[in-house]
Design a protein that fits this description.
Layout: H1 8-11, E1 19-20, E2 25-28, E3 39-42, H2 45-50, H3 64-70
Antiparallel strand pairs: 1-2, 2-3
Length: 77
Amino acid sequence: MYYCGVRVGEAVLIVWSQVDLKAAVIRLEPEQTKTDTARTVPLPDVPVGMLEPKEGSVFDGTNLRKAWQASPWGLER
């Protein structure tokens, strides 16, 4: 989410069928966006290398704030 500018509320709704790792994009459906407008989000190399296709949701919102704060970009250093 940090790398591609996807809102948390959008990210937790993304499923693997919306992700194309070869093209390095995520397709957001209108009902998933704040503006009710579908959009394609480019994925930089870092998340493409980190993501491994599975079933269900791509991102887990559980403890997201805690994980962010513990990351190199968060508040806890």
